[in-house]
Amino acid sequence: FWKAEQHLSKGANMDINKRIDEIFDELVEIRRDFHKNPELSQNEFRTQKKIIEYLNSWGIGNYVCAETGAVGIIKGKNKGKTVGIRGDIDALPINEKNNVPYSSIAPGVMHACGHDAHAAIVLGIAKIMKELADTEDSINGNVKLFFQPAEETIGGADRMIQEGCMENPKVDYVLGLHVQPYLNTGKVELKYGKLNAATDSINIVLKGKAAHGAYPDKGIDAIVMAGNVITALQSIVSRNTSPINSVVISLGKISGGVKDNIIADEVKITGTLRTLDDETRQYTKDRISNIVNNVAAAFGGEGITTFYEGYKSLINDNEVVALIKENAEKLLGKENVEFKDFPSLGAEDFSYFIDAAKGAFFHLGCGNYVKGITAPIHTEYFDIDEECLKVGVKVQVENIITLLKK
After folding, report:
1. CA–CA dist 324, 165 (Å, integer)
2. Which listed residue, 62, 80, 123, 216, has the most CB atoms within 10 A of its CB?
3. Which of 54, 102, 173, 311 is labelled catalytic?
4. What string of H, E and C letters represents the secondary structure of the chain?
5. Whole-angstrom Cα distance, residue 154 to residue 119?
6. How do residues 17-68 score in pLDDT, each as one tens digit?
7. pLDDT at position 8, please?
């Protein structure tokens, strides 16, 4: 991708490509500081403070959002669209095993998902876009910077949006990315349409009637009910859902009964549901509830199902994906722009942002086999090739400039 870098847009009085190279060492320092001092979801107070300090030092207006998050606002002199850019900031409860100078100093807490890199990239974007906004010709429109807490737990994106981060000025387009070590640094991975699944927690309670194990006819066995419910639920994916529509129903925990010679009067089952669109999501919930209710009734018992809604499905806007594709090919070369064949059934709460404005989310390569940087995200040896910070800033700055021109 290095030979294609010269194609980056130029500001009125600034060579953006050169300027990003100049601030690279600072971005590395910022990323390493965040990595060394990770904070779990809803506890990102130090991270928030550092972000606000950077924004203040660069003359970027900002305010606290979602308690431990922050929003920055860069206003161009020329009126136009508003583009939002998101970087999540929370870490994971993982004990780091990397032997590097910037290893986590917080026992049992680690930036094992690259959110330190995401925050550093958005800060790099902030610095470049502020400098562009301060030039004579300025930028067309505004840029909003979303430093989002609690991506790994409660969905901080939803909370930020509920607190009005997409308004005043109203965001027209929103962009996000995630580092991925299975992609070499210098590459990006895109996908039109469906990218990540919606999540729901499944909670099933089966109620029967207790009796002595020697007299099973006197009771209603909730364990027998549970076995049949579990088997019947498998038919939703295999027989009620199109083979080309991905749905996952995983039951991860079952508990019930009080003693080995007592017929169980209650069994509880919990699990997760993953779907890729709202229609399939609602249909599958209804189907689960009906099966649980009817199977339990067939055995003379009662079946109750409740769902706890998680993240929405992430569905990219194809127009914005096409724009990112064009910019990435220009900057990195066509050979470094890949497309994901199938959506992921994993969750990503950027879906809340994309539900509120047109936008797209893509993957940024951070792996480097030569340097031995290959560990998957959410593992104790995860790390990044820090050159990816430069790539992330360059691609996103180009995306923002292009969207503002629209």
Report:
1. 23
2. 123
3. 311
4. CHHHHHHCCCCCCCCHHHHHHHHHHHHHHHHHHHHHCCCECCCCHHHHHHHHHHHHHCCCEEEEECCCEEEEEEECCEEEEEEEEEEECCEECCCCCCCCCCCCCCCCCECCCCHHHHHHHHHHHHHHHHHHHCCCCCCEEEEEEEEECCCCCCCHHHHHHHCCCCCCCCCCEEEEEEEEEEEECCCEEECCCEEECEEEEEEEEEECECEECCCHHHCECHHHHHHHHHHHHHHHHHHCCCCCCCCEEEEEEEEECCCCCEECCEEEEEEEEEECCHHHHHHHHHHHHHHHHHHHHHCCCEEEEEEEECCCCEECCHHHHHHHHHHHHHHHCHHHEEECCCCECCCCCHHHHHHHCEEEEEEEEEEECCCCECCCCCCCCCCCCCHHHHHHHHHHHHHHHHHHHC
5. 19
6. 999 999 999 999 999 999 999 999 999 999 999 999 999 999 999 999 999 9
7. 63
Query: How many CB atoms are located within 10 Å of the residue 35 CB?
Result: 27
Percent of the chain whose predicted confidence (pLDDT) is above 90: 94
Q: How far apart are CA 221 and CA 298, in angstroms?
A: 12
Q: Which amino acid is at 368?
A: N
Q: Which of 5, 131, 386, 398 is catalytic?
A: 386
Return all residues near 341 (Cβ < 8 A) that are at least 6 apart: none
**Residue 199 phi, psi (nearest 5):** -125, 140
Backbone phi, then psi, for 179, in 5-degree steps?
A: -70, 145
Which two structure tokens, joined as six digits, stand for 161? 């949006």
Q: What is the spatial distance between Cα 15 and Cα 349, in angstroms, rounded to a whole number?
A: 34
DSSP bridge partners of 188: 337, 364
Active site residue 386: yes
* DSSP-derived pairing of the beta strands 337-339 and 188-190: parallel
User: Computed from CA positions of residues 378, 382, 385, 390, in that sequence, does the dihedral angle turn out positive or negative?
Assistant: positive
Distance CA 57, CA 77 (A): 20
Residue 314: phi and psi, rounded to 5, are -95, 115
pLDDT at 301 over 50: yes
